Every structure is written in structure tokens, then in C-alpha cells.
Amino acid sequence: MNTTEILRSFEEITEHYIQELEGFSMEQLKQQPGENEWSLGQMYRHLIGAALYLQLANAERCLAPDGNDAVSAGEKTEVGAAIFEQGSLPPVRIQVPPSPQYTPQQPESKEQLVEGLKSVVRRMYEIAPKLENAPLHHTVAHPRFGGLTAEEWFKLVEMHYRHHLMQKDRLKQALLLNT
């Protein structure tokens, strides 16, 4: 997918997430299906936070003209190369132990989530035109995928949102079963 296609797909997925929010109460958005499982609201906050403070922040680091903020992190790992070859994250559930650094806070309101999602779309549109001239030797390491360029960090936002559609559907089913 090129940048235009990524933006179009990302906007569609984001609009889907926003429309889905309308069908839930705040109580439902905060309901966790299990002790160590995220609520729908936490999943939304994870998507927003990962995009703004990890993926797009690292894309910006790669775009820095002097490269001081970007590191040449080497090549992608085998896993990273496979993911970018496929254009998607594998359809497997990834669980990490709860921790204050990684576990998202519960949302304060639906408006907070909608505004967060829209702010990611705005940042994507701000960064997209800069990708054409992005230096390919400026990479920032992803913990699992290895050194990623600005364009790869940008693509990862859309892939990550798409990947979490499965979790959203699973959490939605859990809520429907509990009503």
C-alpha cells in the first residue's frame, strides 16, 4: 500500500472505531472480561497512545533532518520483515502482563476517545507528505521488528489498528454475552 492507500484505509478503520463507540455506555467501555484483560475503553486508549507516542513519534524521529534523534538501528528482524511483506500483523492474540507502564488507563469519556482517534488521523495527515523524502538510513528500533524507517512506523499505525479489530470484536461479544 502506498501512503494514500494507507491513509484511506486508516480513516475507514478509525471511522469504524468511532461508530462502534456509539453503541456502548461508559460502563460497558470500562468493563473488563477478566482480571488481566483490557476493557474496550482501554483498548481504544492503547491504540491512541501507541500511535501518538510510539509509532508516529518514531516516524518523526526518523524524519529528523540531521538524524540525531534517529538511530541507525540496523535491519528488520525476520519477524519484522515478514510482517511488512504480508502488510499485516499476524492474527494472534498477544498478552503482556499487566503493568503501570503498559496497561492503559480506563477512559474518562467517549469524547476523550473520539478526540484521541481524530488526533491520530490529524497526525497521520501531517506526517504523510514528509515520507516522500524520508531518509531510508534513519531507523528507530522496534522491540520485536528491528530497525524501522519513518514509512514503516507510519504503516505500522494502520496495521496495528487493523490488528485490534479482532480484539474489539472479541470484547464486544463478551459484553453481549454479559447483558
Automatic annotation (TrEMBL):
Domain DinB-like: where? 13-166
The protein's matches in SUPFAM superfamilies, at most eight in alphabetical order, are given as:
DinB/YfiT-like putative metalloenzymes
Please give one Pfam family short name. DinB_2
Could you tell me what this protein is called?
DinB-like domain-containing protein
Organism from which the protein derives = Paenibacillus tyrfis
At the highest ranks, the source species' classification is: Bacteria, Bacillati, Bacillota, Bacilli, Bacillales
